[in-house]
Amino acid sequence: MKFPTPVTLTWMATLIDAEVVGNAAVTPTGINEIHKVEQGDIVFVDHPKYYDTCLQSAASVIIINSTAVQIPEGKALLYTADPFEAYLKIVDYFKPFTPSEKAISSSAKIGAGSVVMPNCYIGNHVVIGKNTIIHPNVTIGDDCIIGDHVVIQSGTVIGSDAFYYNTKKNRPVWFKRMKSCGHVVIEDYVEIGAGCTIDRGVTSETRIGRGSILDNQVHIGHDTLVGKNCLFAAQVGIAGAVVIEDGVTLWGQVGVSKTLTIGENAVVLAQGGVPSDLEGNKVYWGTPTQEAAVKRRELVWIKRIPELWKKVMDTPS
Predict the structure, then answer these.
(1) How many CB atoms lie within 10 A of CB 300?
(2) How far is CA 30 from CA 4, 60, 88, 120, in A?
(3) How many domains, in total, are found in the chain?
(4) Mean pLDDT score of the chain, rounded to an integer?
(5) Catalytic residue from among 135, 183, 219, 222
(6) Is 81 strand, coil or helix?
(7) What is the 3-state secondary structure (H, E, C) of 186-254?
């Protein structure tokens, strides 16, 4: 999330009740979580396991609960006892919850030739392009951007909050939601089936590339970037911060783990489970995914195990 204008560290420290350590001249321009952080951003960290990752990231300012760390040159720390609560304060200040009082917000912009059918909800500051069709009972959350010539079938939700929680087992409620202040971008000529869910970015964007097609009941996690001309069959589930390059095909019930990359023109056959990066221009199958040709050869040999065992047992010693 970018701030409307850069802010001073003094002002930010007052907002979140923090102490400035390091380069006090830094002027933050936004806040991002670690997977999307850029120069000028603030990032927060509250566990020693991730201190170094955040300190060495592109972030200019780190909200942290320890001063016993080496500050990289040119960067600043905002020291506070609870960095996660500080993050929530920043989001609440710059992106406060704004309830809607009507089905289609007065701040939404809908292009020429586009159709929004009955019982849809269009949130604040949504932008919908030209000649797009939004079928009944679709929900489009605040700040989402929908391109030209897009089709969204009934019951789909675009811009739901990320499944992203801060976990502390020393408090009565272990899981506390990390408020989402990002959005979703649907590029031109995308078609989205019925009953799909596309989560907004936590602090950045989730994007579906031009010409991609989603079947019914597909889930796209927060901050995932889907390339152009991808095809996802029914019940595909993709976790957060995944990069799917152009031309990828995921057949029915494929599950994709978080923070990985699937290379261009890769194909994953039905019910495949993707736990790590996949090279492009190959066909994959199974859980965990392997190249389909290799997997098929393995199955042939597995079926021959009884025959081979019998030969071994029948061979004189």
Answers:
(1) 8
(2) 9, 10, 14, 32
(3) 2
(4) 95
(5) 222
(6) coil
(7) ECCCCEECCCCEEECCCCCEEEECCCCEECCCCEECCCCEECCCCEECCCCEECCCCEECCCCEECCCC
pLDDT digits (tens, 9 = 90+) for 251-302: 999 999 999 999 999 999 999 999 999 999 999 999 999 999 888 888 888 8
Tokens matching residue 192: 């989205």
178 and 76 in a common domain: no
Whether residues 237 and 183 share a domain: the answer is yes
Q: Tell me if residue 125 is catalytic.
A: no
* Cis-peptide into 288, omega within 30 deg: yes
Residue 33 lies in a domain: yes
Residue at 255 is within a domain? yes
Cα–Cα dist 270/276, whole Å: 17
Distance CA 147, CA 139 (A): 16
Q: pLDDT value at position 159?
A: 98
Which contiguous run of DSSP H or E holds residue 52?
helix 51-55
Q: Are residues 43 and 172 in the same domain?
A: no
Is there a single domain that holds both residue 64 and residue 34?
yes
Instruction: Look at residue 301 and tell me if it is in a domain.
Output: no
Which domain range does residue 236 map to?
Answer: 109-295
Residue 1 lies in a domain: no
CATH code, domain with 240: 2.160.10.10
